[in-house]
From TrEMBL:
Molecular function as annotated in GO: glyoxylate reductase (NADPH) activity; hydroxypyruvate reductase [NAD(P)H] activity; NAD binding
InterPro entries in the cross-refs: D-isomer_2-hydroxyacid_DH, D-isomer_DH_NAD-bd, NAD(P)-bd_dom_sf
Name of the molecule in the record: D-isomer specific 2-hydroxyacid dehydrogenase NAD-binding domain-containing protein
Pfam families named in the record: 2-Hacid_dh_C (PF02826)
Cellular-component GO terms for this entry: cytosol
Domain of life: Eukaryota
Gene3D superfamilies, per database record: NAD(P)-binding Rossmann-like Domain
PANTHER family: 2-HYDROXYACID DEHYDROGENASE-RELATED, D-ISOMER SPECIFIC 2-HYDROXYACID DEHYDROGENASE FAMILY PROTEIN-RELATED
Keyword Oxidoreductase included in the entry's annotation: yes
Domain D-isomer specific 2-hydroxyacid dehydrogenase NAD-binding: 130-303
SUPFAM superfamilies linked: Formate/glycerate dehydrogenase catalytic domain-like, NAD(P)-binding Rossmann-fold domains
Length: 350
């Protein structure tokens, strides 16, 4: 077995001073390292697979067979084949909310605990959903452009807002932690809120078991649900046409929740009124047709990216990794429920 010291990081201490730091495998560089990489290195001996010149499989076989914890970025796909190369893993700690790239069925078979960071990002993602909605309705980016490019005194056909948010019918797709916070924020605008979820919740909001029916009764859909085989393309052309020509779609969940090709067609054809998108089907690629539309607002999958959220995420991840030997004490433990690894295209060059 080769020496992995050049690709592992941490504070080296002699055996006489203190026990070695716990090893943690990191396959792809996580977003949180932009803020807290040094802090992680003080607590853990990090095996940074992406820095190695070795092919990934060879690195895992040679250097990670004894690793008990994996820090997982949203880019990392943990398949059954990957887990086969990591026979000692007991914990997969995800830096983000979604776990759609992890084979939960295989984790359950192996007794591996999978955790996410939902609580760290809930408030900020909900804020971003409202921000995207207001930006689409009021055409804020287009107005900002007019000022920056000194079109204000020249362009008398300046962008005008779509319609008032106040008292509109808003449908929340997925009334989980984030969806609930989105709904609470919409209450301040006097909106009438309804929702669809896997099952009806204890809530004062009107429940529609069918998303088509929800769309028929709403001006706006805000997509907050998890990505599963069942929710893939949950927003299809039929749903968008049911929403109508003035309808707005906001997506702060995952890109494949929306049939992106049909979304582009509906926007270009005027079948819906606008969209606010933080996520896309084949990130980081974005359909070029969207760049020309003033009724569309685009952000680069950063809905929850605030310094405070990353600090909360850091604390949650550290707590989970340090506690992996006692699953009962884990925070935000993601249950290893029956499911399958979703196979979507991500990360290709545009």
């Amino acid at each position: 077995m080769g020496d992995c010291r050049s690709y592992s990081h941490g504070v080296e201490q002699s055996d006489e001073q203190q026990p070695p730091l716990p090893e943690v495998l990191v396959i792809h560089r996580p977003a949180i390292f932009a803020f807290h990489e040094k802090k992680f290195e003080k607590k853990f001996h990090l095996l940074k697979a992406w820095e190695s010149p070795l092919p990934m499989e060879e690195f895992l076989r040679n250097h990670a067979r004894s690793v008990k914890a994996v820090l997982c970025s949203f880019k990392t796909r943990i398949t059954a084949d990957v887990l086969h190369m990591l026979p000692s893993v007991e914990l997969i700690a995800c830096e983000s909310t979604g776990v759609e790239n992890i084979d939960l069925v295989e984790c359950r078979k192996r007794g591996i605990t999978v955790t996410n960071a939902a609580s760290a990002f809930v408030e900020d993602v909900a804020d971003m959903a409202i921000g995207l909605l207001l930006s689409v309705l009021m055409k804020i980016p287009a107005a900002d452009r007019d000022v920056r490019f000194k079109l204000w005194p020249k362009n008398m056909t300046f962008p005008v807002g779509h319609f008032k948010l106040r008292e509109k019918q808003v449908g929340v797709v997925g009334l989980g932690n984030i969806g609930l916070q989105v709904a609470k924020r919409l209450e301040a605008f006097g909106c009438s809120i309804s929702y669809t979820s896997r099952k009806e919740k204890l809530s004062s909001y009107k429940y529609y078991p069918n998303i088509q029916e929800l769309a028929l009764h709403c001006n706006i859909l805000i997509v907050c649900c998890s990505l599963t085989e069942q929710t893939h393309h949950i927003i299809n052309r039929n749903v968008m046409e049911a929403l109508g020509e003035d309808g707005i779609v906001i997506n702060i969940g995952r890109g494949p929740l929306i049939d992106e090709k049909e979304l582009v067609k509906c926007l270009v054809e005027g079948k819906i009124g606008g969209a606010g998108l933080d996520v896309f089907e084949e990130e980081p690629c974005v359909p070029k047709e969207l760049f020309e539309l003033d009724n569309v607002v685009l952000t680069p999958h950063r809905a929850g990216f605030t310094e405070q959220a990353f600090f909360d995420d850091f604390q949650l991840l550290v707590g989970n990794i340090e506690s992996y030997h006692s699953p009962q004490s884990l925070n935000q433990m993601w249950p290893s429920v029956p499911g399958s690894l979703l196979r979507f295209k991500v990360g290709r060059d545009c």
